[in-house]
Amino acid sequence: MAATRYRRFLKLCEEWPVDASKWGRDLGSHLRGRVAQAFREGENTQVANPEDCDQMYESLVRIHTNYHKNKIT
C-alpha cells in the first residue's frame, strides 16, 4: 500500500509547478523535498501512520486544484 501512496505523491509533485523566482520559498520545491524525505526508500518505505499520510495527500490536492476557490457556494 505504501507503493500506491508514493506514486500518488510523485504524480502530485509532477503536476505542481516550480517557480524559479521564489528560490527558497517555493511550495512546489518544498513539497518535492518533503516527499523525498518521507519516502527515502521509494516504494519500499513503510508508512508509520497511513491515515495521516492520506489526509496530507488529500489536503495538498485540494490546495493544488484550488478546491475552495472553485467551490460553488
Automatic annotation (TrEMBL):
Keywords for the protein's UniProt record, in alphabetical order: Mitochondrion, Mitochondrion nucleoid, Transit peptide
GO cellular component terms, semicolon-separated: mitochondrial nucleoid
Subcellular location: Mitochondrion matrix, Mitochondrion nucleoid
Pfam families: UQCC2_CBP6
Principal cellular location given in the protein's record: mitochondrion
Gene Ontology BP, a term: mitochondrial respiratory chain complex III assembly
InterPro entries associated with the record: UQCC2
Protein's name according to its UniProt entry: Mitochondrial nucleoid factor 1
Organism expressing this protein natively: Alligator mississippiensis
Gene: MNF1
